[in-house]
Amino acid sequence: MTVTAFIRSPALAEYRLGDEHPMSPLHRRLAVELIEAYGLLDRDDVRIVESEPATDEQISRVHAPAYVRAARRFSESPVLASSWEAAQWGFAAGGDTPAFAGMHEATAGICGASITGAMEVWEGRADQSFSVAGGLHHALSNRAAGFCVYNDPAVAIAALLDAGAERVAYVDVDVHHGDGTQWIFYEDPRVLTCSVHESGRYLFPGTGMLAERGVGEGAGTSVNIPLPAYSGDAPYLRAVEEVIAPAVLAFDPDIIVTQDGADPHHQDPLAHLQVTTAAFPRLYRTLKQLAAEACGGRWVALGGGGYNPDFVPRAWTMLFATMLGVELEDELPPAWREHAEAALGRVVTSTLMGDVEPIVSGPERMRADQEGHLVVDQARMLLST
Fold first, then answer.
1. Between the CA of residue 283 and those of 104, 181, 348, 367, what are the distances in Å?
2. Tens-place pLDDT, residues 203-226
């Protein structure tokens, strides 16, 4: 029996960047509640694990100690965030990652959940794990960025390396380039970072170009597929299946960590890719098969971006169901729908696969897909050099 650990953490509700901030804990809470509504946590092959916050020592494996001290200070006194020092560390008021009370504790909790998921798999208590709270991939070693205070994927990868893993593959399918995680391990030959994302020509953080391939001993251990705005299912899935999967298999990792942002979806308000709901089950099946072939199924799945509250819960429920090998009823549980509509103050889609036509179609979409296929072809060629 394949055992899947589902990681719970109070940090899921505590990471609040502001009432009007697009990164709302409500989206993640609704995802957990939809997973529960489908009965996926009641199965014998699911192990529910409560996590503990990461220690400063664990966080400082990838973050500068001075940065961790600054995050603690602004966490205790967010009013100081108007100072020049706050801007230096990425916490300026009005920025994308504003300081908030309890910030250090909340983000340490997210890091702890990701470490817990990684250790459940590495130490053999589970074959795979999922932490909805995780996926804060933009935080740099010494600076907050892109809604992210600490980089929990990197903290979890460092914990795996410390526990004896010799090679860890990181796969990032978020619409935004996984820049923080990439830069943290850019010179480390033990970590392969792969990211398919909307090109930095159009979208934050402006990085993740084909030429970013690692340096020094880490040369060749960074793989990027930057897709043009408005490209859709075909180039996106090709990037995962024809570039990332072969790269991971060639790397021969001991374990795979994935950042599973739901924001490539065409209805996401913060990006421009036109990936439809129908592509996500195939994406998740590909990741599951990749873990099976590359490292005996050892897979640590994390959440990530996603700013359409109608889609994020459905995406991560599909992901968890795929991990379990479960086919779900397309009709969403009525009680969950009623609860979600009350929480959001709006009508939500009635079915798991419910979708509308992508916003961009016709010649503009065709041009974007053609350019996207060319980028995938270039990325494939780079794998052999």
1. 33, 21, 23, 23
2. 999 999 999 999 999 999 999 999
